[in-house]
């Protein structure tokens, strides 16, 4: 077989371990953690899914090595807690039995202990330790570690690495980036010590070298050690790429691969975890520069999900390995699909931060486009149905396509009815926003997957009682979606008004000055796009906050973009559309004109309940899914659709 991406699919050997390709699953915190900080019953499956999907290595994260000074409620590994070693053994086994190399990230949060606690008040009660005494910007005091504590931490890294090897892990990653403890010692912004652990770079490197030496002594020769570092801290006062090169040179004799990330938790979360507004691979240049100066292999990452881009990174020598986190949540099968030349079936990560928002909100994991995430122990495989049935799905949006695909994968005879001439539903509108193009691609990919699964698609076919009586479905899934709310304001039917769902069809109508009526997620993202195009944009919102329907991780970066590209009018109610803009009433009851030659209507969606009520009696088994039940998001649509397909 001729490999479409030969460099990406080529094996690599680190230490005495050979990895089956160059696609690694980067560290991600597990799904659940027990009260005594052991691996919960759902977590082994969380990592196993990516091992089954073909990743060469899967790294479990984050294993806290020294709970005495890192009091986070995170994973521990010790011999004193009953079941602790066993839980890690089951995790390593779940990964390695599928041909992937099981790795675990050894970590110490330092001054950021408690970052992932759902109860933020409890975080304030933790003891925070770092290289130096100071007070964090959020008011939490940090204590400088003593020499005795430092040496105890160094020993703990080795002890934990030895236990990880005993549990069956075949590699360890030492976390030295992102503002965690080792990075805090490396950083001139945080390390103000005057002893042998502070001052010049050699001294600031001392703790990291002692830790890596401790780990090597514990795991022995030939056992791969991966060192994760920020190539640059990317904030004023932090270390630069030039410093990052020297740090990499300063540890290469102790490690088998240097994993180059970017940024620092305190000042650059969105440099470390690239949002949809950033280019894919924005941090690759850091790894590429460091690779020029070291002899050990270098790994890179940063919103990578395109096989062609990853192939070029390896082929051109920018890095030896590419690592993915969110991309392998969205599609754990990405490596298998790349190896088999099936890249047109890859479900791309949307960079919506659903996965990262769920963890601090509910303490679980979820992915907008992959309903299995966090729920792998409930079943990873779609099993064939005992009896093949005639299934009709009404609606070709994301929910309808996912339900039809799942039902077909179970062996049912599936017909999908779509009243328009194209599939995709609301996803079609996202093709006009470059930073949301992957949402449009999701519809394209689902269409391709349905084709391969044998779903019969009938476009330009409204569902009627007569048609359904003719088709005689044994199971009927209603995914008829929602429609935009258009308030009955004077002038709203004018030529200068564009409904946000139709922007992709009517963007040529949009002038250089725009008023976006509605400051929800859709309105804000459309406004940011228009601002990026150089237009003068105003957002008018009747509530006192924007994007209240946005998750807690995506919203801060979206608000940064809103502040950069738009002018915001909160507590304003639209009254009338005119040729000059939108006449609105402010909080004081005064009428004001918000200027704009075009008005974008983005006030929300309303469920198509009339269609549901008309059709729900047309089959013995009926399920309603997606926006026609309750206007929500892609996450809800995919999840309900997947389970509707499983339930038939």
- What strand order characterises the main sheet? 3-4-5-9-10-11-12-13
End-to-end Cα distance: 38 Å
**Major beta-sheet overview:** 8 strands, parallel, barrel
Shape: globular
Provide the β-strand percentage band: 15-25%
**Total helix count?**
22
Low-confidence stretches: none
Number of strands: 28
Mean pLDDT: 96
Instruction: State the helicity in percent bands.
Output: 25-40%
Structural class call reads: alpha/beta
Rg: 26 Å
Description:
The structure is a single chain. With 648 residues, this protein is of the alpha/beta class. The strands form seven sheets. It has an eight-stranded parallel barrel with strand order 3-4-5-9-10-11-12-13, surrounded by seven helices. Strands 16-15-14-17-28 form a five-stranded parallel beta sheet, covered by helices on one side. It has a five-stranded parallel beta sheet with strand order 19-26-20-21-22, covered by helices on one side. Helix 8 links the parallel strand 10 (225-230) and strand 11. The protein is globular and about 75 Å long. It starts with 11 loop residues before the first strand and ends with a helix. The mean pLDDT is 96.
């Amino acid at each position: 077989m001729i490999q479409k991406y030969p460099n990406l699919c080529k094996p690599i050997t680190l230490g005495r371990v050979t990895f089956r390709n160059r696609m690694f699953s980067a560290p991600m915190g597990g799904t659940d953690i027990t009260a005594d900080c052991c691996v919960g019953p759902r977590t082994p499956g969380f990592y196993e899914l990516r091992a089954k999907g073909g990743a060469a290595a899967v790294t479990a994260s984050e294993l806290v090595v020294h709970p005495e000074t890192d009091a986070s409620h995170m994973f521990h590994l010790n011999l004193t807690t009953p079941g602790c070693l066993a839980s890690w053994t089951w995790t390593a086994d779940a990964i390695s039995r599928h041909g992937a190399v099981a790795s675990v990230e050894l970590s110490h949060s330092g001054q950021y202990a408690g970052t992932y606690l759902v109860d933020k008040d409890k975080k304030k009660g933790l003891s925070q330790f770092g290289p130096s005494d100071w007070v964090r910007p959020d008011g939490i005091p940090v204590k400088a570690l003593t020499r005795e504590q430092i040496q105890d931490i160094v020993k703990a890294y080795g002890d934990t690495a030895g236990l990880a090897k005993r549990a069956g892990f075949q590699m360890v990653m030492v976390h030295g980036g992102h503002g965690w403890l080792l990075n805090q010692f490396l950083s001139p912004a945080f390390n103000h010590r005057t002893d042998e652990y502070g001052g010049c770079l050699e001294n600031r490197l001392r703790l990291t070298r002692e830790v890596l030496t401790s780990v090597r002594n514990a795991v022995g020769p030939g056992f791969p050690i991966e060192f994760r570092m920020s190539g640059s801290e990317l904030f004023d006062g932090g270390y630069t790429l030039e410093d990052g090169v020297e740090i990499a040179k300063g540890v290469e004799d102790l490690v088998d691969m240097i994993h180059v990330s970017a940024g620092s938790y305190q000042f650059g979360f969105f440099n470390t975890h690239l949002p949809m507004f950033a280019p894919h691979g924005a941090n690759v240049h850091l790894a590429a520069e460091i690779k020029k100066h070291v002899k050990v292999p270098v790994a890179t990452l940063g919103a990578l999900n395109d096989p062609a881009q990853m192939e070029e990174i390896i082929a051109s020598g920018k890095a030896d390995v590419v690592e993915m986190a969110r991309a392998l949540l969205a599609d754990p099968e990405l490596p298998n699909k790349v190896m088999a030349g099936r890249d047109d079936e890859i479900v791309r990560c949307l960079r919506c931060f659903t996965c990262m928002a769920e963890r601090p909100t509910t303490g679980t994991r979820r992915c907008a486009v992959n309903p299995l995430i966090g729920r792998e122990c409930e079943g990873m495989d779609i099993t064939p149905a005992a009896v093949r049935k005639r299934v009709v799905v009404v609606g070709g949006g994301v929910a309808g396509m996912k339900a039809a695909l799942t039902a077909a994968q179970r062996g049912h005879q599936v017909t999908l009815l779509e009243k328009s001439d194209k599939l995709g539903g609301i996803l079609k509108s996202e093709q006009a926003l470059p930073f949301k193009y992957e949402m449009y691609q999701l519809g394209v990919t689902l269409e391709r997957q349905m084709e391969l699964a044998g779903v019969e698609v009938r476009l330009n076919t409204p569902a009627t009682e007569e048609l359904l009586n003719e088709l005689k479905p044994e199971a009927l899934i209603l995914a008829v979606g929602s429609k935009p709310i258009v308030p009955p304001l004077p002038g709203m039917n004018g030529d200068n008004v564009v409904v946000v769902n139709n922007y992709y069809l009517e963007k040529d109508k949009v002038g250089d000055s725009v008023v976006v009526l509605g400051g929800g997620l859709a309105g804000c993202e459309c406004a940011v796009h228009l601002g990026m195009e150089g237009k003068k944009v105003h957002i008018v919102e009747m509530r006192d906050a924007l994007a209240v329907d946005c998750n807690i991780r995506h919203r801060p970066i979206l608000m940064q973009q809103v502040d950069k590209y738009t002018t915001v009018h909160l507590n304003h109610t639209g009254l009338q559309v005119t040729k000059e803009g939108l006449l609105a009433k402010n909080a004081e009851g005064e009428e004001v004109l918000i200027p704009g030659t075009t008005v974008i209507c983005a006030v929300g969606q309303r469920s198509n309940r009339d269609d549901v009520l008309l059709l729900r009696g047309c089959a013995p088994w009926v399920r309603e899914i997606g926006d026609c039940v309750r206007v929500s998001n892609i996450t809800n649509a995919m999840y309900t659709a997947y389970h509707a397909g499983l339930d038939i």
